[in-house]
Hints:
Largest sheet: 2 strands, antiparallel
Number of strands: 2
Low-confidence stretches: none
Mean pLDDT: 85
Number of helices: 5
Shape: elongated
Amino acid sequence: MLIVNFVQPQADNVLNHVSCILKKEEGSMKFKPLALGAAAGILWGGCIFLITLLSHYTGYGRLFLEALPESIYPGYSITLAGSFVGLIYGFLDGFICGAILGWLYNKVAGV
C-alpha cells in the first residue's frame, strides 16, 4: 500500500524562492538591482529575439518590430542576424531599466 503525504508550502519557503531578486533586511524587502536587471534583460532580450524570428518566418508582429526595435536599436532588422542583434540590445536595455527600477525602488522605499 502506497501512502502519499501532501505538504502545503509555507510562506517562508515561497520567500526563499524569490530571494535571488529580493533581500530581506530588518523586516523590509529590498531589491537587488543587478539581479532584477538581469531578469528584466533576459526577459526583454528573449522577447525581441523570439518575436523577430517569428516575424522573419511568418510576418507576425512586423508592425511592432518596425515601430519599436528598428527605430531605436541601430543595426537591428527583421532578419535572422537581426534577431541576435535584437537579443543583445534587448538584454542591455532590459538590464539597465531593471537595475534602475530596483535602485529607485530601494531609494523611494527607504530600504
